[in-house]
Design brief:
The longest helix is centred in the first third of the chain and has 41 residues. The protein has one domain: Rossmann fold. The termini are far apart. The protein is built from five helices and ten strands; from the N terminus they run H-E-E-H-E-E-E-H-E-E-E-H-E-H-E. The chain is globular and about 40 Å long. It is of the alpha/beta class. Strand 7 and strand 8 form a beta hairpin. The chain has an eight-stranded mixed β-sheet with strand order 3-4-2-5-6-7-8-10, sandwiched between helices.
């Protein structure tokens, strides 16, 4: 048994180490994207009366469990003086409780239906996709080792939200 452990352990360790960099990179990407989502909430202002008392709700719609887990770890942080609550919504019902909605990996049809349902409402919609997603207020992407975001300002304004000028300067692009 000891011989078997001495032979198999180095082999297993080398296989795990070979797999670790891509897995670690995906984990780090998810954590950075989650941090960007959180900071977007700090640089946005909602119209009076649109924030619910007692909690700030981030609703997560994604098939990417790693990203959903990273966003779930934001729960308990403070946004606008209240605790952030993360909702992993399945099915997509009652998104009216959300102040922010993260639209991750999902079919284009499902994403389009959610964006249409939230159009004009004071809900910050953040879509993951690498290119600006029509109807989303913010679109996240990755280039090399950097996470970037694009902002569609007319969509933000139709929802009654305001974004801080500092945030607009950090965006890769801003549609005006």
């Amino acid at each position: 048994m000891a011989v078997l452990i001495r032979v198999l352990f180095p082999l297993l360790a080398s296989v795990l180490l070979a797999l670790a960099p891509p897995a670690r990179a995906a984990l780090e990407e998810n954590e950075v994207k989650a941090a960007v989502v959180y900071h977007l909430s700090l640089f946005a202002d909602w119209p009076p009366g649109s924030l619910r008392e007692g909690s700030f709700n981030l609703c997560v719609l994604t098939e990417n469990e790693g990203m959903a887990d990273a966003l779930s770890r934001l729960g308990g942080k403070t946004v606008k003086g209240v605790h952030l609550v993360v909702w992993r919504k399945r099915p997509m019902l009652d998104l009216g409780i959300c102040q922010m909605v993260y639209l991750g990996e999902m079919s284009e049809g499902a994403r389009g239906r959610v964006i249409a349902q939230l159009a004009g409402q004071p809900v910050l919609t953040i879509a993951n996709g690498g290119i600006p997603i029509p109807g989303a207020m913010v679109s996240l992407g990755v280039s090399g080792e950097r996470v970037y975001f694009d902002i569609d300002l007319p969509v933000v304004q139709r929802g009654g939200l305001r974004l801080d000028a500092k945030l607009l300067r950090l965006a890769r692009s801003v549609v005006k």
